[in-house]
């Protein structure tokens, strides 16, 4: 069975290709390489010993999608392709809505024409409204504060409308769409062959810690130690990217086994970890001191959020298997083996 993976050369996509191939699926990757290199896919082939079919193309390119759906028997689509930097989305909103929203519309239209109606979409915990109640469950209020988050929520809403339309039209082949709301993906494949390869100075905590560890960056700035959390630093729900990747395979399998409709599912560990807890885990697991200083809060950050993982267990039989030690160990192994990423 062949799965089309849009954005499959990227960080989460490449790890998902490994898990799909390991589970016996064939993988077809469509990626415009705007934020990735084909080297990641070459390494996916090394890890799995299996081939990946790759086309360089844009998910907004209808003719390209038509040609793929005509030439290949695609069973389901996992849609990672999109832009993901919150700050950049505030500077270039049109680019974000074009890639993330228009891209998803074109994809769904061409899938519908080709009668392929199983889709997994990369959503994000950023679609949740700030909440005093934790953990976040899938039925909690949604609301966003930047164009990136808004683009994810718009696509969720568009896909929810497809379920309504299927019912109104009494469609014989209804959509089955899984909206996976990721919490904070970190880590890398244990081989050290694939991992996160951010452009320039990383915005996210884990790649920043790794680059301090390897000496590319001088010290970590911890954004605030006066939050109402366990130690004053921000709390997030970190999830190992290999667990996240396996969640996609489980979602595809659940849809093949009859999961229908449009289902939003958190992919998180169900637990929060503070910045300091993550830094200290990195230090003790890898035996490396991370130089750091406390600075002011980062604009737009909230104190704490983590997700409930119960619905994922119930609907797609998925839960995390890898703990924080694996996250910090694998992040460091990838960074130390590939100091300049895929270059
Ligand atoms: P990534 O940038 O590593 O991967 C995205 C891939 O999509 C890249 O290979 C890029 O070249 C490709 N791409 C972008 N626009 C495209 C287009 N129009 N057509 C074809 N290919 C295109 O990012 P990632 O971290 O692997 O994230 C994958 C998805 O998960 C994204 O949709 C992102 O918004 C979502 N997500 C990521 C995180 C995170 O923290 N990494 C959290 C929540 C959600
Ligand atoms: N953070 C930090 N220093 C950094 C980057 C992040 O202290 O250089 C903190 C940030 O304030 C937040 C946590 O680490 O509390 C996770 O931030 P990240 O950007 O990785 O994820 P997000 O804020 O999107 O959840």
Characterization of the model:
The structure is a single chain. By secondary structure, the protein is α/β, with parallel strands linked by helices. It has a domain at 2-186 and 238-268 and 307-321: Rossmann fold, CATH 3.40.50. It is 41% helix and 17% strand. The protein is built from 11 helices and 13 strands. The strands form 4 sheets. The chain has a 7-stranded parallel β-sheet, sandwiched between helices. Strands 7-10 form a two-stranded parallel ribbon. Helix 3 (62-71) packs parallel to helix 5 (93-113), helix 5 (93-113) packs parallel to helix 6 (147-168) and helix 7 packs across helix 11. The radius of gyration is 19 Å and the shape is globular. The model has no long low-confidence stretch (mean pLDDT 97). It binds nicotinamide-adenine-dinucleotide and uridine-5'-diphosphate. Uridine-5'-diphosphate binds at residues 184, 203-205, 208, 220-223, 234, 236, 275, 298, 301.
Q: What is shown here, in short?
A:
With 343 residues, the protein is of the alpha/beta class.
Q: What key attributes describe this structure?
A:
7-stranded parallel β-sheet; 343 residues; 11 helices; alpha/beta; binds uridine-5'-diphosphate; 41% helix; binds nicotinamide-adenine-dinucleotide; Rossmann fold
| Rg measurement, Å | 19 Å
Amount of helix:
40-55%
Instruction: Determine and state the CATH class of the domain at 2-186 and 238-268 and 307-321.
Output: Alpha Beta
CATH architecture heading of the domain at 2-186 and 238-268 and 307-321: 3-Layer(aba) Sandwich
CATH superfamily of the domain at 2-186 and 238-268 and 307-321: NAD(P)-binding Rossmann-like Domain
- The oligomeric state of the chains shown is single chain
Q: Characterize the largest beta sheet: strand count, sense, and whether it forms a barrel.
A: 7 strands, parallel
Q: For the terminal residues, how far apart are their CA atoms?
A: 33 Å
What gross morphology would you assign?
Answer: globular
Supply the number of helical segments.
11
Structural class: alpha/beta
| Low-pLDDT ranges | none
Mean pLDDT: 97
Bound molecules: nicotinamide-adenine-dinucleotide, uridine-5'-diphosphate
CATH topology of the domain at 2-186 and 238-268 and 307-321, what is it called? Rossmann fold
Order of helices and strands: EHEHEHEHHEHEEHEEEHEEHEHH
């Amino acid at each position: 069975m062949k799965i089309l993976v849009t954005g499959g050369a990227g960080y989460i996509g490449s790890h998902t290709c490994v898990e799909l191939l390991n589970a016996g699926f064939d993988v077809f990757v469509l990626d415009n390489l705007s934020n990735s290199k084909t080297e990641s896919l070459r390494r996916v082939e090394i890890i799995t010993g299996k081939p990946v079919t790759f086309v360089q193309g844009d998910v907004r390119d209808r003719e390209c999608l038509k040609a793929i759906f005509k030439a290949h028997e695609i069973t389901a689509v996992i849609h990672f392709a999109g832009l993901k930097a919150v700050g950049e989305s505030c500077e270039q909103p049109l680019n974000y809505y074009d890639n993330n929203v228009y891209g998803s519309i074109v994809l769904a239209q061409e899938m519908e024409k080709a009668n392929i109606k199983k889709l997994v979409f990369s959503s994000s915990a950023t679609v949740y409204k700030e909440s005093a109640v934790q953990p976040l469950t899938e039925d909690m209020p949604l609301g966003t504060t930047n164009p990136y988050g808004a683009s994810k929520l718009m696509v969720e809403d568009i896909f929810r409308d497809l379920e309504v339309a299927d019912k109104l039209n009494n469609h014989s082949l209804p959509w089955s769409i899984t909206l996976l709301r990721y919490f904070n993906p970190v880590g890398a494949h244990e081989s050290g062959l694939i991992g996160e390869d951010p452009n320039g100075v990383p915005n996210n905590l884990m790649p920043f810690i790794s680059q301090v560890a390897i000496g590319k960056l001088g010290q970590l700035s911890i954004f605030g130690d006066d939050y109402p959390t366990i130690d004053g630093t921000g709390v997030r729900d970190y999830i190992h990217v290999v667990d996240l990747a396996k969640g996609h395979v489980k979602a595809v399998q659940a849809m093949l086994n009859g999961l229908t409709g449009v289902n939003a599912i958190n992919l998180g560990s169900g637990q929060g970890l503070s910045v300091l807890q993550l830094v200290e885990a990195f230090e003790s697991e890898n035996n490396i001191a991370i130089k750091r200083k406390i600075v002011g809060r980062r604009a737009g950050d909230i104190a704490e959020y983590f997700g409930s993982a119960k619905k994922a267990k119930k609907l797609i039989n998925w839960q995390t298997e890898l703990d924080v030690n694996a996250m910090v160990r694998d992040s460091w192994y990838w960074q130390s083996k590939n100091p300049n990423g895929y270059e």
